[in-house]
Design a protein that fits this description.
- The protein has about 170 residues and is mainly α.
- It has seven helices and two strands, in the order H-H-H-H-H-H-E-E-H.
- Strands 1-2 form a two-stranded antiparallel sheet.
- Strand 1 and strand 2 form a beta hairpin.
- Helix 2 (about 20-40) runs antiparallel to helix 4 and helix 4 (about 60-75) packs parallel to helix 6.
- InterPro entries: DinB/YfiT-like, MST-like.
- This is DinB family protein.
Amino acid sequence: MTTPSIDPSLPPMLALTGGEREVLEAFLDFHRAMVTRKALGLSDQDIRRRHVPSLTTLGGLLKHLTIVERNWFRRVLAQDPTMGPPTQEDADGSFMLDAEDTLDTLVAAYGEACAESRRIAAEFPLDHVVPHAELGQVSLCWIYVHMIEETARHAGHADILRELTDGVTGAVV
């Protein structure tokens, strides 16, 4: 039996026989990295370019996912009282870029939010349950699955936006 060649830059491929938490974390980290990689190498103007009628841009995806990370891990899971309740601006304005938003600042903020999410999640078992204003209760496991879905969905958007920007395609670009 030959050992398959596995690209070590793909976290899910390294967790093939891992436990539930390891697999969930690997898939979430993979999709987080894909969103960031799709924006790297572009100009600040490129990440603001709108190719679709909505406000969706590569920069807007990074900003939105930064807010989503903070919402689910800090506000919901950690029950951080300094976060306050979600606002309409969190939802509506999360894709809108400010004048000071650059590729570097957006990538850094997203990276920091993801690191904070990892630190917070590490404090709880997968079956840890917290109250949620609209859903009643959610577990950390549910939050992981939701974040994989949310981030993967936007990684797909980033794939398309990057291709429309400069023609670059590929899973790890």
